[in-house]
Fold this sequence. Notes:
The structure holds 2 protein chains of 2 kinds.
Chain A: H1 2-25, E1 28-33, H2 43-50, H3 53-56, E2 59-64, H4 71-76, E3 82-85, H5 87-95, E4 100-105, E5 112-117, E6 132-135, H6 142-150, E7 167-170, E8 185-189, H7 193-199, E9 207-211, E10 223-227, H8 228-231, H9 243-263, H10 265-273, H11 290-306, H12 308-311, H13 320-332, H14 348-354
Parallel strand pairs in A: 1-2, 1-3, 6-7, 6-8
Antiparallel strand pairs in A: 3-10, 4-10, 5-8, 5-9
Chain B: H1 2-14, H2 21-40, H3 50-76, H4 81-105, H5 116-125, H6 127-162, H7 164-177, H8 182-193, H9 197-221, H10 225-233, H11 238-273, H12 282-291, H13 295-323
Amino acid sequence: MKAKRIVSAVAATLAAGWMVQAEAGEELAVSLQLKWFPQAQFAGYFVAKEKGYYAEEGLDVTLLPIGDQSPIQTVVSGAVDFGTTWIADLLTAREKGLPVVHIAQMFQRSGFAMVALKSSGIDNLCDIKGRSVGVWPSGNEYPAVALFRKCGLTSSLDARVANPDVTAVTYPFDPALVFPERVDLVSAMIYNEVNQIIGLGYELDQLNVWMLADEGINLLEDLVFTTEKVLNDPDYKGSGMSGREVAARLLRASLKGWAWAVANQEEAVDEYVLPVCGNTCKGSGTRSDARGHQLWQMREIAKLFEAGATARGCAGYLEPAAYEASVQLLLDQEILSKAPPAATVDYGPWEMATGKTGADCQ
Amino acid sequence: MATLGSSLAGTTRAEGGGPPLSAVLALAAGQAFLLLFVLLWWERTDIAAPAWQLGLYLATLVAAFGLSRLAGWIAEHPAGPVVRFLPAAFTMILTLLAAEALLRAYQVPAGLIPTPTEVLTVLWQARDVLLQDTFQTFVMEAVIGFLIGVGVALPVSLLIARSGFLQRGMMPYAAAFSSIPIPALAPVFVHMFGLDWQSKAAVVAVTVFFPVVVNVVRGLLEIDPRLLDLMRSYAASDRQIFAKARVPNALPFFFNALKLGTTLAMIGAIVGEFFGATGKGLGFRIQIEAGRFGFDIVWAAIIVASTLGIAWFGLVAWLERRFTAWHVSLRE
């Protein structure tokens, strides 16, 4: 009796294994362009891949890293199917005629911060006329640009202003290169560079840290996008699935990965983040230990993920109000010259993936 | 276009024979069609019908055919410098017209490729900022770095040329270092010398230094032994041999290295800025605008950088002709 049961269990396992393999053979290969090098910022996608959530959806997803370049460039060129980027990058690209479409909003709150030493004398964020400010190029400078414009200041990022109020210093992302010697105020993601600056030997009580979201500049960050061409393809890469269906499957698995990652932060970092990243996971100075830095990052990322719509059970949903606020801000600061067309956002894949609609998220 | 074509035909015909009328007509008609389309589509935002697109390709081909025949005719006939420059000028005009028309016909987004008129417009609008960028990149970084590199390289070359030990000990390294790819150096120097112009000038100095050393040493040493024998038979002193035989022999090598250096200096300064900059410079502008899909400004900055690069190269080539006019390659 027992032996029989074992035999049938083995047989079932084998059969299941065979079926998985058979399915694996038919998995559709798609790629997702991450916005940066591997780190906890993308934990949900790593979890979805390694725990097999993508495979369950019939997808074989390749997660691609990128340096200081816009993910939009690789996706628009057709080399990559989907990407993650920030809202200002997406909307300015759309205004320049690139047919990119927003399909899911992963982070509900901006993690962009500005940091100054208290000893610099900058107590008010707008009090930076004549100062140098560290910004990142490649579409990551918009939050800083929005801040300058909001404060009524011109900057050297504007190719049409000859004597700018603020000197914007570009550098390869590591704040140690410029802060605090060359710039008084520096861009920092709350989940990454802020911890690096602490690692350089400046404790939080020596720093003024402004979250731009609290200063009225809540430009939405990590979102998932693709192109109109991908979405409107009736038979994507000959898979028999429409591009929209593929997008829905990618989102369903990614959201499942994210839910797991924020619920199991330590395990997510140890099992799924640290194995895929080398040096790119390290912090700076006294906080250079990769595990410690990524645990900080995972904690902060979880806060950005779990805000807004996620807290009401609608992870990945782009709240129309938050979107309108980002658009209005970019219009007010003249970063956009006109409101983006309705086709810039497509709720279809998210609705298909979650079985919900916007009405469920109020 | 048509009037330009016929007046061209008129002037050259006076010089004898005249260019083939069919060629002039083909060029004029092709370009006129392209120009007409551009004007028609100036405000339109729809993709042109396939018939229009086909027409544009045909017009470009017809104009190119006319241009090549015209260029062939000009090459075979005696002509002044202005007329000899015409084929190059028309090639440029035709290329820009065809690009403008095709980009408008397909409505290629400005975020991918801007049209030539968009680039020229923004070149004018952003001229103040681009001038500041140019001062930073060209004067502070490229020229200063170039002068430092050449200034250090010359005495070092003289030392090496005089010392057999240095020749055997250093020249292999100089040759190896002269082929360092600049992008590999730039981030290192930005870390060492900071984000402002000094780090880029250092990159430029190093990249210019080695080619000058390698070339000048070769020029000083690779001299016809019979020339040295001749000098000695005149009882020339070492100093005279150096001044009257070795230096003139080295000059063409030196100018070759300088010409190479102008190009390397512009590349070094612009690429250096990609790894960090203090809010100005052509490389900074190119990087920041490429990230924002502002390719009209990117192209405008590229035009400025190319124009300066060509002018600088031309200046060195002019100096070369003045100082080495006796050389075989320059005698007419």
